[in-house]
Amino acid sequence: MRCVIARYPFELTRTGVLDSMKGVKPEPVTGASVTIGRRRYPAKQVGRILTRQDPRDFTAGEVTRAMTRLGFTCHDQPAAAPVGAPVGAPVDLGAGLGVPGALRTASALLGGPGPVAV
Prior knowledge:
Blueprint: E1 2-5, E2 8-11, H1 14-21, E3 33-36, E4 39-42, H2 43-51, H3 60-69, E5 73-75, E6 91-92, E7 103-104, H4 106-109
Antiparallel strand pairs: 1-2, 3-4, 3-5, 6-7
Helix pairs in contact: 2-3
């Protein structure tokens, strides 16, 4: 299928994309991404590998548009973070003890720095 990325025409096929991305380790996803096989790649990484161009020369939208036409699943945003507080986030341990503002981190419980300023 003919696709235009960074003002240049490319003849891309689904099997050609699968072969090109085989053995490529995905970079961390921070924006638009494409699922190829069982892996989720940033759109810019896919475009860089397929076109052999600098990622500054094309947009993620151009790549996702081409990949969608080839039948790949594209995502606008990174995968959602797991539910719950992130590791190392402050936890209000004094809430249930009647001590207002007794905010500590996990490292404080293990002998690290004391209370965090409230």
